[in-house]
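Weekly structure sync, notes
Attendees: PL (lead), two postdocs, one rotation student
Agenda item 3: pending single-chain targets
PL asked that the sequence for the first pending target be pasted directly into the notes so everyone works from the same version. It is reproduced below exactly as submitted, 470 residues in total.
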Amino acid sequence: MASNLFKRYIWLADTIHRYGPITLAEIRTRWQRSALYDGRPLARRTFHSHRDAVEELFDLSIVCDEHTNRYSIANSEDLNSHNITNWLLDSFAVGQSLREAHTLHNRVLVEEVPSARGHLPELLDAMRENRQVVVTYQPFTGDEAFDLRLRPLFVKLRDRRWYLYADKPDNAKTKLYALDRMVKIRVIDDRFTPPKELDPAGYLAGAFGVAVYDDICPCTIRVRVAGDGVKYLRTLPLHASQQEVETHDDYAIFEFHVAPTPEFYQAMLNCHCNFEVLLPDNVREEMRRIIGDLGALYDHNVQKVIFLDFDGVMNTERYIAERRRNGLPVSDRYGYLFDPEAVENLRRIIDATGAEVVISSSWRLEGEERMKDMWHERALPGQLIGITGQSLHANFPMSAGETAGAAKGEEIRGWLKEHASKPYRYVIFDDEADIRPEQRPHFIQTDPRIGITRADAERAIQILNGEDHD
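Predicted structure, written out during the meeting:
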């Protein structure tokens, strides 16, 4: 009964919004043609009761013009800012049309949203009552499900998946959870008070999609769009920040203020060849690299590079301590000796991928020729093809929103920009995360006690051979 009443409220709001200004007699006529019609006419008293409920539930005021006796939505221009109300009305309008034309049921195809049928109602109940939930969660990565105690803050629908944004009672950091990865939900009695500063729209303002990354800040991204892509973007903007800043006969320039996350790059790829990232340089370069990696799947002529740190990667605390205990020298004229296990794991990577080595260690400051001499004298595997330069901030200035401090990452980016003229894949070995955000998928951080491990080597092989699909 309550469900049917709710549908009647939405029907009334939708009817007046679509056909208003409209008289009560016209509303009654449409009611009799509605799929919700139960054989009873819409009494004036019932109409006004529903009218009050619409205002209370949806914050939509139905007003009457005394001169014409026609009803309309007083604040209909505000509907665009009421996302949930708009979504409810749109969803209802489509569903209502299908019910009224039931003979078309096999000619109208819609996408399913599986997660909405399962746990969404429970989460909405918990959010309304500010109750904590215990979720049994099974991520795509990992074999076993585990329990999480969460404080549900808000939800978002994106690409047929519902997502929950929640924090924990002992950790106020907001994290993202997909409803279709939830095995079970239990609403518990413990209540919580949502943060006073909770602003879901503001939290996601700079995000593209659903994920917010602490180390990827929003920046202004300029994209050149040609052909039919221009009309597509005008009709269906990719992001709320989208602006058309230049218009030409055969193309247009659009700007977005978003974080260049993996979701953003995926959206650019979905738009095919009509879209070209122009600025900032680092986003354009990452787009070029992704396209190069895709091309390399069909073209095996791809350059593979290992950016190699030494301290904590090749020479290890374990090996140095062992040699000292045995009274053996720990260094030669170049520096600390390398751990044989780390060398063997480097050899395993090179044998499996054919990758070449570029030194990113501070040892490179002794010069490329000296490093090549060391490589030869120590009989190290593979081919050493160069060293990274000193920080290239002057040549590649950071864009707005980028953070300073990733000096080694800047040097690696500079080397790739200068030397990698064909499609390439790369990995970065270092015991310190001194890299740029877009280099994270290529970064393997070692434990300085043990250096490159067998597991590190297997991970590097996957990345370099294009088998990494996480």
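Discussion points:
- DSSP finds 15 helices and 17 strands in the chain.
- Confidence is low (pLDDT under 50) at residues 391-405.
Action: rotation student to compare against the earlier draft before next sync.
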